[in-house]
Each structure stands twice: as structure tokens, then as C-alpha cells.
């Protein structure tokens, strides 16, 4: 392999260093093709390590190289974002709103046809959070601004500004920070919806000049669960949730005051809005701050402000909507009427909220809350207890009576589900009761959970204002989802509830399902549940009930976000076949989709991006509905291969192939998840490669300090699970099992790739995963944890000092005993990958630049370990020995280790030295440890900071965090 001709005398130009290191990658790959026992990534890692040892590459060189590589990654990221939402498309002369209006056939009831088409919310954008804020807010803003620029020259300075910043997430991310970023995205989304609704009104005015002001278009809505998601969290107080909802209300009133024409026609509604805004500001002035535990006096003061200002603040949008309706009829100019009509549409869709609220908790929390009034043993999920639980909750529903709720009772409540339901009661009563709120229940696996939630809602008197929504995400939930709903539908109370509220809502999750059964298999099982849900509604004569389907996913392919385009993303989540069957059964469907964290908010990062995103959503929602009118002949749902027919997709005709194919993927993925080597791969130092990316509490610690050892993937959340796979260079949950599944029927597999719109779209996720995966990279990480590799290196080194370091590292790794299980795991992954390559030889491979990032990071990890073995011996501290500390370094618990070393080896003198305590002086450490800090601890810290920096850069190369 070619070696760099480097002198330690002066720093090197970043472009030259990049060129030389990329050449090393290419040369090493070429040599590996002739030498099957060579790992090209580890070979480059060794070469970089030697350059660092000889000072041929210095820290300044690395920083300059990182800035250059960051700039390239961010430039490509901005270009991908621009293409993803379709900003570069050449739009037709007429925009989507005009095309929708133009597609309505002329006739006696054509205006009513349009009103039915756009007067119902058919799609909702839901901003979710979780710990997925993987890039700094400033970098995200610059990427969005760059993507919005049509000229590449205008993008360059924005990208350069972003590249000068770190890619690591902001140091401290609070729930307030997440809420603020969600609000920025929501505000851009609301502006885009206003623009879309305004264009609909313009087109309607041109066609129906005497009736257009009757139209109240609200085809799309914005929602958010940031601040309302308490699943797995105890750090969000009910006062926090109330404050966020009041702040959302203030934003809605601010928008109304800002955009309302100041003309005589709007005097009444302006007076209402001014009074409401002033009252809301007074309420917020006494709202407890995030992270505080308010005193009873503070709670009392806040409660009185909500109650005293209740009437002035308005708690229902009805009076304001009535005022706007009156104003639009008497306003003198079309411009004023248009502005008023647009505001009316926004408030009709969102009530007194900037974004509709989604509340979420776990099924077990519901069960615990109801257990206080139910005299049953056992768990509701136990099949042996199923009938008794259903019968008992039915009896409770027969007799339930609503109780009063006040803030004192809310402050005293300890059961989380009851407390959340009471919080919702107070929000509906004192903040905004215009629309029912969404109540999402994670891990719903029995109809009892839905009925128990209904009992709670009735108990607190808000059953008509809460949309109880099961989340189906685990493998068992996807299999049993229909039985869960069927059990609920057999209960007359649930049927009566659905008919009163007018909507059945379900939530499908792609994160846990994707990591446990494989992302493509999860998509198949979710689609199958969609189809069966349509049949269930038809069988139960629920055609008059709207079906709302909320697809909850992350922004990476492992968590359900299609990488090719927003069009593919929407069609992947809501396939055409299921939508056609719903229409055939007369079922009205409302689609909802999550946009999560930094990556998801990018699509609403600027007004142009938000408008393009809304345009793509409009194409998805309306293209199939009025395709018969040929209004969207230029719209291709999936860029189907030549000859493919999305209206007669062969994947549905070959039902046995689909079932067997995805069953194999699921079986292999479930076996992989239970492999102890897979847990070791994810948990050894994978979590330490990641910075904290959100406000949710971090993972548990071990008894001896440092991160707990993972023994099964279920012990970590889906987001770090996926993020670690990105960082280790092999996206197993999108790839594994595909090889064996394809190899069972290779000819039919190739036919489906060619002819099936649905299958080819799904397989593009595999293609993307392959393009950012490399078994050589994964093997390099696995070999790094293998003591035999370090001993082999010790056997061949010519440097005595290095030999000692290598032996110490090998000995410590041997104590961790990871190598045998990791080698077996690698064999399992390799066998399936070879089968996949045979079936799909056109799969791409990891780019040299991404491979280089992994090689540099491995060299820095090795450098940390080489330095760590030189830490002097010390007496055990808090039960931690030097050997245990070295093992923690091997797991990259660097920050925890350095904190401990600060205490063991202080850099400042003992403050008691020189003080007379009235007795003979006892023994003290009289020295300080500046040398250890200068030569060991500080270099370790700087190297680890660069390891984390590279993690951020890899995130941008892959395309998303988590």
C-alpha cells in the first residue's frame, strides 16, 4: 500500500491530505481484492496510526481535513434535501391548488364537490421529537437555507459557514429547545398551508366568483406531540404540558392579529382576539418554568390565572370563527376577503392552537390507573385472563360516572395515566376545547387497553373529546392488531364511542418493528394490517366512520423513512393498493405522518422547503382521488420501471411470494436480535460513539460506574440502536435476511424488482442501506475488539514500547470476552450478505469518503487506548480499579473515566496544605499531576472529541440520525 511522503515540519493542505488518504483507501481496497485475508479498512487505520505516531499528521491537520470533509458532506446533504422535497422540479404553469379546482367536473353540484374534497382534513403533519436532534440548531438552519437556494453559487457560503461549525449536537438540549425547534417548523408549515389554502381560494374565486367565500378549505393540518409525550418519561410535569399548550395558543392568536386586515369588517373579531391574547399573556406570566418543581402556592397562582382569565382568553374557536365568517361577507375588497378566509381556514383546522396536540403514554400506565378500581389478578395481556378483564371493564363502563377535576386534584394525583387524562381535561376546559385531542397508547396489545382508556375518559368527563389511539409496533401487536380492535368493537360502549366521535384512529410504528423484524418486513406486516383493518371496518358497517392512520417513524431508513424522495416516502407508508381498497369500501381516510427531530424538521426549515413539502403531500393525497380526470397525468407515484402497472401490482397477485419472502426476513432478523454477539456489537462501545441528542433521560449506569453492559437490544431504545448501526458501518435491520429471502426464489425476486411498483420502491431502501454499509468496515470494528488481532500486531511490531501497549490492550480485551460471539455474528451477517449480492449484484458500496471517516475514527480510538494504558496505578476509587478503568476506556466511556481521573490525579494542589489544624499534620498528597494531564488526559479528551465529531459527519453521510 502506498505510504504518504510526509514531513512533521509543517501543517498540510487539507485538500492534499484528503487526496492522499482517499488514495490509501482505493489502494487498500484494490490490494484486498487479491488478498482475501486483508482488511482494507484496518490496513488504512494502521497507516493513519503510524502517521499520527510519527507526527506526519498533527491535530491541526486533522481539524483542517475535518472542515473540508464536513463541507463536502453538508453540500451533498443540502442538495439531497432540495431534491428530496422536489424544489428543483419544473412546476407546471398551474400549481397544485389550481389543478385540484380545475379537475372538478363541471355540473350543478361542482362547488359542493370541491367543498367535499378540500373541506375535510385528509392529511396531518405531526412534529415529533424523541432524542433525534443529532445536529446543532445552527447547522440545521444553514443546511435548510442552503437547500432553499436555487443557485449552487448562493449555496456555497452557507455550506461553508455550516462546515466551520461542529457537527456534534448542541451541548445541552432541553425540552424547551425541542419545543422551540418544533414551533419553527410548525410555523413554516402553517405558512405553507395558508399559501396553499389561499391559492385554492384564488382558483375557486376564478371559477365561482359569487360563492368562493363560502369555501373553508382545510385539506391539511399541523400537529405536534412535543411536550405532550410522556411515554417512558417522568421529567415532564403536567404544568409543563399546560404551558406548552398555552404557548401554542398564543402563537395562533399572534398569527390572527398579525394577518387580520385592520378594516371595519374585522372590528368584532379583532376585539375578541386582542382580549384573548392579553389574557393568555397574563396566564403565561405565572406559568411554572420547565424543570422546576412548583410549590403549591405557584400551582394555586397558575390555576387561578387560568380560571380567572378563562372567558377573556377564549377556550373555543367558535366565537372567533363566527366573527371571521361575518367579516368575510362584509369586507369591501377581495384582498381583505381572501386574507380573512385564509385565517378562517387555519383556525377551523387548528382551533386555538398553532399545532394540534398529540398526547402519548404507555399501555401499562393505563392498566395501572384502572387497577385501583378493578378487582382482578394477572395481566390484561395474559391470554388466560383476556375474557375476565374484558368482562370486568365492560361492567365498569356500564356504571361509570364523571367526576369533577380541579387543579388541586391534578396536583395530588400520582397515577401517570390518570394525571395525563386530568391534564387533558383541564386543557380542554381552560385552554382550547375546539377539537378532540389525540390520545396515543404505546404497546397496545389487547382490546382491554382501549376500553380501560375509554373508562378513564368517561370518568373524567371527556370521552367525546379524546381520540383513543392504539399504537401497533411490536411484532406481536402487528400480528394481533385486528384481534385487539375486534375485541374493542364487540363492546357496545366502544362502538357507541366511535359513532359519537366519528373517527377510528390507529397508529403504526416503524422503529421497534423495524429493528426487531427488519424494516421491509415491518412494512409488509403493517400493510397487511392496513388491509385487514379496511375489511374489519366494512364487516362492522363502519363506513360512516372516518379512519385516521398515523404512521410514526424516524428519519432513517431503519426507522421507516424512505431515502429516495418525499414522494416515495409517502407512498411507502401509505401504499396505493390499501388506499384503493378503502375507497372501494366507502371508507374515508385521514393520513398522518411524523416528521421527527432535526432531520425531519429540515423539510420545514424554510418557507420554500415547507411549501415544496406541502405540494408533495398534496400530490400524494389528491392524485389517486381524481386521477380519473387526468388532472395529474404528470405525477408518477413511484417512478415505476417501464412496464410496471401500479394499479395491478404483481406483488399482490403473488401473495404467497410476499408472505414467504417477508416471513424469512422476519425469522432471520429475530434470530439476529437474539444473538448475543449482536447485543455485544451494539452495546460494547456503540453508545459511547453518540452524543446526547435530546432531552429524554439517558441510559442507566452499571453498579461499578460507566455504562451498563447491553445483553439484549431491547435494553436500548430504537433510536440509539439504529444510530449505532450507522456508526458501525452496517445497517443490519435494513439488510439482514434479504439474502436468504431472495435466494429462495431468485427469478421471482428479480421479476418483482422489475415489475412491482410496491416491491421495487421498498427495495430501494435496501439499495440505499447497501450504499452506506461495508462488511470490511464492520469487520474493522469487530477486529478492534479481538485480543488475537492485537497480539498478532504485538508479534510483528518492531517497537518495544508499542509491543507492551498492545499486550496490555489485548489482555484487557480478553477479560471482556467479546471476540468469539462477535466472530460468530460476523459469519451470520456475511452469509446472508453474500446471498443478497448474488440475487442483486447491482447493489452499490460505501463511498471512499465515508470509508475514510471510519478509518480515521478507528485510528483515534486506537490512539485513546494506547494513551490509556499509560495511566499510572492508583488505589481503588469508589470501587474502581485501574484494570476496571482500562476496560471502561475500551468501551469508550472516556468522559466518565476522565472525570474520575480528575479526582484521582488532581491538577491543583491540596487546599489543606500549609493550614494549621492544631495537631501534627497527617499524610497528604503533596504533588500535583500536571504532566499526566498534559501528556495523557488532555490528548485523550481531544481525541475523543474528534471521535464524536466524526460520528456527526458519518450521520450526514448516511443521511439521518437514528
Summed up:
This protein has 962 residues and is mostly helical. Helix content is 60%, strand content 6%.
Question: Your description of this structure?
Answer:
60% of the residues lie in helices and 6% in strands. It has 43 helices and 8 strands. An 8-stranded parallel β-barrel has the order 1-2-3-4-5-6-7-8, surrounded by 10 helices. The relative contact order is 0.10.
Proportion of beta-strand residues: 5-15%
Strand order of the largest sheet: 1-2-3-4-5-6-7-8
Please summarize the sheet with the most strands: 8 strands, parallel, barrel
Uncertain spans, ≥5 residues at pLDDT below 50? 627-638
Mean pLDDT: 92
**Residue share in helices?**
55-70%
**What would you call the shape?**
globular
Span of the ends, CA to CA? 35 Å
- Radius of gyration from CA coordinates: 30 Å
What is the strand tally?
Answer: 8
The tally of helices reads 43
The chain-level structural class is mainly alpha
Summary tags:
962 residues; eight-stranded parallel barrel; 43 helices
Write the layout of secondary structure elements.
Blueprint: H1 14-34, H2 40-53, H3 59-85, H4 96-103, H5 110-118, E1 123-128, H6 137-148, H7 152-163, H8 175-207, E2 220-224, H9 238-259, H10 267-285, H11 296-308, H12 310-313, H13 318-330, H14 334-350, E3 356-362, H15 363-370, H16 386-399, H17 407-412, H18 416-430, E4 437-442, H19 447-459, E5 466-472, H20 475-489, H21 492-501, E6 503-509, H22 511-517, H23 519-539, E7 546-552, H24 566-573, H25 576-584, E8 589-596, H26 597-601, H27 607-623, H28 650-653, H29 655-673, H30 676-683, H31 718-728, H32 732-735, H33 738-744, H34 746-755, H35 757-771, H36 775-784, H37 787-796, H38 800-816, H39 819-839, H40 848-868, H41 882-890, H42 894-904, H43 930-958
Parallel strand pairs: 1-2, 1-8, 2-3, 3-4, 4-5, 5-6, 6-7, 7-8
Helix pairs in contact: 1-2, 1-3, 1-40, 2-40, 3-6, 3-7, 3-43, 4-8, 6-7, 8-14, 8-27, 9-10, 9-14, 9-18, 10-13, 13-14, 15-19, 16-19, 19-20, 20-23, 22-23, 23-29, 24-27, 29-33, 30-39, 33-39, 34-35, 36-39, 36-40, 37-38, 38-41, 40-43, 42-43
Amino acid at each position: 500500500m502506498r505510504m504518504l511522503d510526509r514531513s512533521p515540519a509543517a501543517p498540510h493542505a487539507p485538500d492534499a491530505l484528503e487526496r492522499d488518504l482517499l488514495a490509501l483507501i482505493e489502494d487498500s481496497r484494490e490490494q484486498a481484492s487479491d488478498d482475501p485475508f486483508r482488511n482494507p479498512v484496518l490496513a488504512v487505520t494502521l497507516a493513519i496510526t503510524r502517521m499520527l505516531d510519527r507526527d506526519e499528521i498533527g491535530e491541526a491537520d486533522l481539524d483542517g481535513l475535518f472542515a473540508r470533509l464536513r463541507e463536502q458532506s453538508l453540500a451533498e446533504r443540502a442538495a439531497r434535501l432540495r431534491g428530496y422535497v422536489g424544489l428543483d422540479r419544473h412546476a407546471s404553469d398551474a400549481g397544485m391548488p389550481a389543478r385540484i379546482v380545475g379537475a372538478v367536473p363541471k355540473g350543478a353540484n361542482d362547488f359542493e364537490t370541491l367543498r367535499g374534497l378540500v373541506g375535510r382534513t385528509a392529511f396531518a403533519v405531526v412534529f415529533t421529537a424523541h432524542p433525534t436532534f443529532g445536529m446543532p440548531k445552527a447547522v440545521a438552519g444553514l443546511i435548510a437555507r442552503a437547500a432553499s437556494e436555487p443557485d449552487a453559487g448562493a449555496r456555497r457560503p452557507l455550506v461553508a459557514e455550516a462546515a466551520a461549525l461542529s457537527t456534534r449536537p448542541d451541548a445541552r438540549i432541553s425540552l424547551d429547545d425541542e419545543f422551540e425547534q418544533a414551533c419553527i417548523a410548525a410555523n413554516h408549515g402553517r405558512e405553507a398551508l395558508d399559501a396553499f389554502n389561499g391559492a385554492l381560494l384564488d382558483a375557486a374565486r376564478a371559477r365561482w366568483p359569487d360563492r368562493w367565500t363560502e369555501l373553508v378549505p382545510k385539506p391539511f393540518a399541523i400537529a405536534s406531540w412535543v411536550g405532550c409525550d410522556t411515554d417512558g418519561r417522568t421529567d415532564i410535569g403536567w404544568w409543563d404540558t399546560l404551558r406548552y399548550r398555552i404557548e401554542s395558543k398564543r402563537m395562533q392568536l399572534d398569527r390572527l392579529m398579525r394577518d387580520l386586515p385592520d378594516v371595519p369588517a374585522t372590528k368584532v373579531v379583532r376585539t375578541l382576539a386582542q382580549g384573548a391574547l392579553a389574557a393568555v399573556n397574563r396566564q403565561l406570566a405565572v406559568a411554572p418554568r420547565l424543570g422546576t418543581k412548583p410549590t403549591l402556592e405557584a400551582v394555586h397562582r397558575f390555576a387561578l390565572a387560568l380560571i380567572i382569565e378563562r372567558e377573556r382568553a377564549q377556550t373555543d374557536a367558535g366565537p372567533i370563527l363566527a366573527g371571521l365568517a361575518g367579516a368575510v361577507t362584509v369586507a369591501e375588497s377581495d384582498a381583505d376577503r381572501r386574507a380573512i378566509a385564509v385565517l378562517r381556514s387555519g383556525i377551523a383546522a387548528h382551533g386555538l392552537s398553532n399545532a394540534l396536540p398529540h398526547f402519548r403514554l404507555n399501555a401499562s400506565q393505563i392498566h395501572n390507573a384502572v387497577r385501583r378500581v378493578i378487582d382482578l389478578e394477572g395481566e390484561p395481556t395474559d391470554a388466560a385472563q383476556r375474557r375476565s378483564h374484558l368482562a370486568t371493564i365492560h361492567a365498569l363502563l356500564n356504571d361509570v360516572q364523571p367526576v369533577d377535576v380541579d387543579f388541586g386534584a391534578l396536583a395530588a394525583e400520582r397515577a401517570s395515566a390518570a394525571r395525563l387524562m386530568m391534564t387533558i381535561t383541564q386543557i380542554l376546559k381552560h385552554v382550547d376545547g375546539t377539537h378532540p385531542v389525540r390520545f396515543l397508547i404505546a404497546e397496545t396489545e389487547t382490546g382491554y387497553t382501549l376500553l380501560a382508556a375509554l373508562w378513564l375518559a368517561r370518568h373524567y368527563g371527556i370521552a367525546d373529546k379524546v381520540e383513543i389511539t392504539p399504537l401497533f409496533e411490536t411484532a406481536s401487536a402487528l400480528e394481533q392488531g385486528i384481534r385487539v380492535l375486534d375485541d374493542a368493537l364487540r363492546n357496545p360502549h366502544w362502538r357507541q364511542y366511535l359513532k359519537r366521535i366519528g373517527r377510528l384512529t390507529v397508529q403504526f410504528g416503524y422503529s421497534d418493528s423495524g429493528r426487531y423484524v427488519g424494516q421491509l418486513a415491518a412494512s409488509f406486516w403493517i400493510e397487511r394490517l392496513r388491509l385487514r383493518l379496511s375489511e374489519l371496518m366494512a364487516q362492522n358497517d363502519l363506513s360512516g366512520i372516518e379512519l385516521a392512520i398515523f404512521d410514526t417513524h424516524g428519519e432513517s431508513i431503519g426507522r421507516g423513512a424512505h431515502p429516495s424522495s418525499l414522494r416515495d416516502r409517502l407512498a411507502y407508508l401509505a401504499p396505493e393498493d390499501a388506499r384503493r381498497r378503502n375507497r372501494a369500501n366507502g371508507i374515508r381516510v385521514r393520513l398522518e405522518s411524523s416528521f421527527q427531530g432535526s432531520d425531519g424538521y429540515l423539510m420545514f426549515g424554510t418557507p420554500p422547503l415547507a411549501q415544496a413539502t406541502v405540494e408533495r403531500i398534496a400530490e400524494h393525497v389528491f392524485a389517486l382521488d381524481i386521477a380519473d380526470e387526468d388532472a395529474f397525468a404528470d405525477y408518477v407515484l413511484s417512478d415505476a420501471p417501464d412496464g410496471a402497472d401500479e394499479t395491478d401490482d404483481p406483488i399482490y397477485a403473488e401473495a404467497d411470494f410476499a408472505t414467504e419472502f417477508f416471513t424469512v426476513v422476519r425469522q432471520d432478523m429475530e434470530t439476529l436480535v437474539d444473538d448475543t454477539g449482536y447485543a455485544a456489537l451494539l452495546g460494547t462501545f456503540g453508545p459511547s460513539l453518540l452524543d446526547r441528542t435530546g432531552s429524554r433521560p439517558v441510559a442507566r449506569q452499571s453498579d461499578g460506574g460507566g455504562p451498563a453492559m447491553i445483553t439484549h437490544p431491547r435494553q436500548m431504545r430504537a433510536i440509539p440502536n439504529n444510530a449505532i448501526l450507522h456508526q458501525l458501518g452496517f445497517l443490519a435491520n435494513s439488510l439482514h435476511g434479504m439474502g436468504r429471502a431472495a435466494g429462495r426464489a431468485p427469478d421471482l425476486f428479480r421479476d418483482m424488482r422489475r415489475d412491482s411498483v410496491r416491491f421495487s420502491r421498498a427495495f430501494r431502501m435496501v439499495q440505499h442501506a447497501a450504499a452506506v454499509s461495508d462488511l470490511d468496515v464492520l469487520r474493522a470494528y469487530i477486529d478492534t475488539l479481538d485480543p488475537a488481532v492485537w497480539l498478532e500486531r504485538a508479534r510483528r511490531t518492531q517497537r518495544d514500547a508499542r509491543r507492551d501497549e498492545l499486550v496490555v490492550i489485548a489482555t484487557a480485551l480478553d477479560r471482556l470476552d467479546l471476540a468469539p460471539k462477535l466472530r460468530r455474528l460476523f459469519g451470520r451477517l456475511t452469509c446472508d450478505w453474500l446471498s443478497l449480492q448474488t440475487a442483486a449484484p447491482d447493489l452499490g458500496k460505501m463511498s471512499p469518503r465515508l470509508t475514510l471517516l471510519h478509518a480515521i475514527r478507528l485510528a483515534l480510538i486506537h490512539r485513546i487506548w494506547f494513551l490509556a494504558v499509560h495511566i499510572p496505578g492508583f488505589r481503588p476509587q469508589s470501587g474502581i480499579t485501574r484494570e476496571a478503568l482500562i476496560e471502561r476506556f475500551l468501551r469508550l466511556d472516556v468522559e466518565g473515566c476522565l472525570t474520575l481521573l480528575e479526582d484521582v490525579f488532581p491538577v491543583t494542589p491540596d487546599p489543606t496544605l500549609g493550614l494549621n489544624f492544631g495537631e501534627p499534620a497527617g499524610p497528604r498528597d503533596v504533588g500535583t499531576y500536571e504532566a499526566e494531564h498534559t501528556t495523557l488526559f488532555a490528548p485523550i479528551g481531544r481525541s475523543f472529541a474528534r471521535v464524536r465529531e466524526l460520528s456527526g459527519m458519518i450521520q450526514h453521510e448516511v443521511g439521518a440520525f437514528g
